[in-house]
Amino acid sequence: MRRSADKKRDSQTFKALLGVRELVLGGTVPPGERLSEAVLAERLGISRTPLRAALARLEQEGLLEQIPSGGYAARSFTMADVFDAIELRGVLEGTAARLAAERGVPPARMKAIKQLVAELDRTFRGRPEDMLFDQYVELNAEFHAMLATLPGSEMMRREVERAAHLPFASPSAFLEKQEDVLAFRLSLVHAQRQHREIVSAIEMREGGRAEALAREHARLARQNMEFVLDEDRSLIPRVPGLALVSA
Fold first, then answer.
1. In contact, 131 and 123? CB cutoff 8 Å
2. pTM tops 0.70
3. Distance (Å) of CA 36 to CA 12, 60, 72
4. Is the pLDDT of residue 2 over 80?
């Protein structure tokens, strides 16, 4: 009975986590505005206990901040914050790739990530316009999650996951809802080449090369961000979280 209750509570907390994160990143809650527990609980259809746990988790992730009067508010970010978050993910994924190469990856796990890269390859078609974009985004998230497991360290996996939850640092932060942006589709050709090279470097036990490739790969998110800001600002409302960024 207790296990069932714990499972239900965890499920409700996860629902609250996703719901509040979407509201904040989507700009529904302006930066600095206090989050009303009563309003959120009613809107998301959950009780306050799992909601409070979710709010505390989002404060740890850096998306919310505690306010002196009590409770939480959505944070605002600078462009430097965004670029630092991307860089931090790159540093941690680079370290994971280097450790995996230096320690060696069990054959079954190496086979699994190579199969995943092959699945990513199959999302591409003759023309960028025809690629299976949604499938790529899903598999890309799987690739980065699997990469974090290759060193065989739960601590490393957990910290890479934590970094990926930083605002704007997710591997798919600038891909979701951008399926009709040709420039982003074209950038994925290069990203997929990097996926293959990262896995190859790990398999060849080339730690320094694996680390450099993984860090460079993370910087593609920065390039996508710069494209939105410098080339096509009409995309700003479609990038989760940009409503929180001050000029």
1. yes
2. yes
3. 18, 18, 8
4. no
Mean per-residue pLDDT, 164-185: 71
**Residues whose CB is less than 8 angstroms from the CB of residue 228 and which lie 6 or more positions away in sequence, other chains included:** 174, 235, 236, 239, 242
The model's pLDDT over 74-97, given as tens digits with 9 standing for 90+, comes to 998 888 888 898 999 999 999 999
- Asked whether 140 and 171 are in contact (CB, 8 A), the reply is yes
Other Cβ atoms within 10 Å of 157 Cβ, number: 18
Closest CA to 210 of 118, 97, 125: 97
Amino acid (one-letter) located at 163: A
Give the mean model confidence (pLDDT) for residues 28-40: 88
- The bridge status of strand 72-74 relative to strand 64-66 is antiparallel
